[in-house]
Each structure stands twice: as C-alpha cells, then as structure tokens.
Fold:
Amino acid sequence: MQEAAVYGGEAGTPYDPCYHQACDTFANNNDQGLGEMADAVAHGVYTLAKTTAQLTNGVSVKKTAAKQVTSGRKAKARAAKRAAIVRR
Structure:
C-alpha cells in the first residue's frame, strides 16, 4: 500500500499490465520516465567526461598511463641487456 501511495497504481496489480506481452509497444511508453532517465545518463557521461578523479581516487589517468609506458620501456631495455649478456 505504501508503494502505491508513492509511485501510483493500485496495490496487488502490476504497474504495466502489458510488460513483455503483445501489447507492450512504444505506444504505451512513459515519455516522462524516459526523459528523466535520458537526462540521468547525459549527466553521468558529462561528469565522467570532465573528470575521472572520483573513479581513480584522485590519481591522474594520464600520469598512470605514462608510468605504465615508461615502466614497459624500461622492462624491454632490461630484457634486451640480459639477452645481449646471454649471447656473449
């Protein structure tokens, strides 16, 4: 009953009686809900495009990538030195 008071509808009946039925088409789409969810997705994309600091605990993605490239180059150089020593 509390759910019906908050979200509408009637207790004990489905919100959408056409859910996964033949009558489930875009004709009975909730345009307001679709608009709200589209806005939420747009906000998330915009926020992530501005910064990923919250996802990386403040560590710069560019700095992390640069360290990985540098460490990869150093590892290749060490491997090449070892290979040269082994060949002697």
In short: The helical segments are 2-7, 31-50, 61-87. The chain has a mean pLDDT of 78. The chain has two domains: 1-50, 57-88.
